[in-house]
Amino acid sequence: MSDLTPAKTRAAPAGATAVSPAVGIRRVALVMGLWLAVAVIYWPSSLALARLWTNVAEETYTHGFLILAISLWLVVRARHKLSAAPVRPALPALIPLLLLSALWVWAWRAAIQELHMMLVPVILFTAIVAALGWRVARILIFPVGYLYFALPFWSNGVFLLQDLSAKMVGVLVWLTGVPAFVQGNVIELPSGAIRIAG
């Protein structure tokens, strides 16, 4: 018989187990349920993020909802891997989940907004480990970790990067033989000044 047999009549490879597409959809629904539960339980962080993401005056983190949508899409896209992964709840993960929750409560009560917002993805991942196990959680490391691109802690590195850029430009200008004086994020040249904006 020729190899032109339609794909739907071919047998599954040896050792492969057939998994219903409904299993993947149920697993995605379970992950989305955990995602929603974390968002509701840790509502002060969710509310702070929503305010940050809708602050059109500053526009620094208005991409937050897009990042969230991409993360959720990455979970849906991984449904086939999720359906193949065995669900084995890791009850010992409840201990770090409780410790992270206590740290979150402390950060929230101490009004350390960036810290309690940064803890939410870690809490979500730990909840996934506790409820679904390490194999499922391993598949979801990237979608959950991707959420960090929507969090405000990146702005803390701006000053460091500004300083580094100013020093590097100062060195490069000096290497060309042009006299330069670097002070903070401003490079003084004979013909004017360059300011590294943040």
Automatic annotation (TrEMBL):
Keywords: Membrane, Transmembrane, Transmembrane helix. The chain crosses the membrane at residues 28-49, 61-78, 90-109, 115-134, 141-162, 168-187. Pfam families: Exosortase_EpsH. InterPro entries: Exosortase. This is Exosortase 1. It comes from mine drainage metagenome. The lineage of its organism: unclassified sequences, metagenomes, ecological metagenomes.
